[in-house]
Amino acid sequence: MTRGLLTDDAQLGQPYWWDDATWVSLPDPPPAKVDLLIIGAGFTGLSAAIAAHDAGAKVAVIDAGQPGKGASTRNGGMTGAHPRNGWDDLNRDYGAQVADGLFAEAQKALDFALGLIDQENIECDLQATGRIQLAWTPAHLENQKKTAAHVQRFTPDGCKMIPRAGLGDHINTPQYHGGLYFPGHYALHPWKYHNGMLQAVLNRDIPVSSDCAAQSVARNGAGFVVKTDKGSIQADKIVLGTNGYTKGPFHWFTRRVFPLPSFIIATQQISPNLLGELAPGKRMMVETRARHSYFRLSPDGTRILFGGRASMVHLNPAQAAKRLHATMVEVWPQLADTKVTHAWSGNTGYTFSHMPNVGSHDGIHYSMGYSGSGTVMAPYLGMKAAYQALGDDRGQTFYSHTTLRRHWMHPGGQPHFLKAANMWYRTYVDRAENWAARRSRPDS
Ligand SMILES: Cc1cc2nc3c(=O)[nH]c(=O)nc-3n(C[C@H](O)[C@H](O)[C@H](O)COP(=O)(O)OP(=O)(O)OC[C@H]3O[C@@H](n4cnc5c(N)ncnc54)[C@H](O)[C@@H]3O)c2cc1C
């Protein structure tokens, strides 16, 4: 049934980004003693390693699998840093000073990620595409106006409201009520970005060990002994950067940061004329609806990569492809016969506040909970976590004033509550949003 929308050689379960990937072999065990042990070798851990090493610490990095095969090489490559929550929500949760601080820190975080790419000469198909957030309902458009006013207080040119009549310069579809355009946001190729960071770590002679999960952590005087798949390590400090893939003895964290899957498809090549008609702005594009579709052109400008919340629980790639293709055709009916070459998923590390947090628990420093926005925030906050672990003032960030809350629905272990949440969203929230969107469209 689904096969019809897949090409004969479709890669199911494998990200488009991995087509030309060569994975670095890192079989060596970690050293027996370090100043700082970093657990997890995605964007968070690698950036933490660079910052700590350059501050003079003896560092090692371990990963339970192949570094990068968590979320960091599976994502959409959309690159910007404005907070996930609106200012009013942040003010309610943390007060006006922290809300302001989080909005002000967005540009610093983006500048940090761009600076890292520049400083380490990371060739990652970085493109200054801008990003447009597309309003699914009139109410979403009103919320965007409030967000725009707050963003502009700190970054006057940081964003611009686009009325419905102006959307045609960015995207050709009648589906949206307007949008919020961030001209300073970027697109990149996540595998190349991660691999560039990994090379920067290896060039510093920082040991990185793959297939080396942390199995237990015990106090040892002021430091720790960490038992791993490849032997024990004594570490004065630890930074945990395991986000939506956390496994092992980190139950405090898995109760607060849970794996929420996100899915992406890549289409077969599409004619330049049709692509120019569908997406004349060549922007990164995200929706405001709870289904949260996000889409872009591939770096070579020949395909659409279309991601979203096809489900909140595990779905096999063929089923995910079918759902995402259907959503894509809602946006662009012209793509009804366009086939899918890749369908894959990854875990975002989601929090009950939708915000990341940097801090320490029982002496373990951490940065996690990016809730689906980590291409900038993970390296930026990984760097902050490393500085905090070393007692360096450069670790200060308003993201230490957010919180990793617990929720009674999630006592720990597998996030079983997502089955109920999935049902609620599919049967109620999606329908209610679609009804609100349709009844106010001029063509309805
Ligand atoms: C499908 C998808 C699309 C996304 N799109 C975007 C996007 O367009 N823009 C954006 O900004 N963000 C996006 N994100 C989010 C972004 O990819 C993540 O926030 C970011 O990659 C998190 O990086 P990380 O280093 O914290 O975690 P990860 O890259 O997930 O790495 C965590 C690592 O920890 C390791 N680990 C776990 N437990 C242990 C242990 N006990 N011992 C040793 N190692 C361990 C894992 O093996 C893994 O390698 C997306 C995410 C997904 C899944």
What topology emerges from the helices and strands here?
Elements: E1 6-12, E2 33-39, H1 43-54, E3 59-62, E4 78-79, H2 87-94, H3 96-119, E5 131-134, H4 138-154, E6 160-163, E7 178-182, E8 186-187, H5 190-203, E9 208-209, E10 214-220, E11 223-228, E12 231-240, H6 251-254, E13 257-267, H7 272-278, E14 284-287, E15 294-297, E16 304-308, H8 317-331, E17 340-351, E18 357-361, E19 364-368, H9 377-389, H10 417-439
Parallel strand pairs: 1-17, 2-3, 2-12, 3-9, 5-14, 12-19
Antiparallel strand pairs: 4-8, 5-7, 6-7, 10-11, 11-12, 13-16, 13-17, 14-15, 15-16, 18-19
Helix pairs in contact: 1-5, 1-9, 2-3, 3-9
The structure holds flavin-adenine dinucleotide.
Bound molecules: flavin-adenine dinucleotide
What CATH calls the topology is FAD/NAD(P)-binding domain
Q: What would the average pLDDT be, to the nearest integer?
A: 94
From the coordinates shown, what is the CATH architecture? 3-Layer(bba) Sandwich
How much beta, percentage-wise?
15-25%
Distance between the termini: 32 Å
Contiguous low-pLDDT stretches (5 residues minimum) are none
Strand order across the largest sheet? 1-17-13-16-15-14-5-7-6
Which geometry do the CA atoms define? globular
Overall radius of gyration: 21 Å
Order of helices and strands: EEHEEHHEHEEEHEEEEHEHEEEHEEEHH
Give the full name of the CATH homologous superfamily: FAD/NAD(P)-binding domain
Helix content: 25-40%
The total of helices stands at 10
Largest sheet: 9 strands, mixed
Summed up, the domain count is 1
> What is the subunit organization of this protein?
single chain
Instruction: Indicate the structural class.
Output: alpha/beta
Give a count of the beta strands, DSSP E runs of length 2 or more: 19
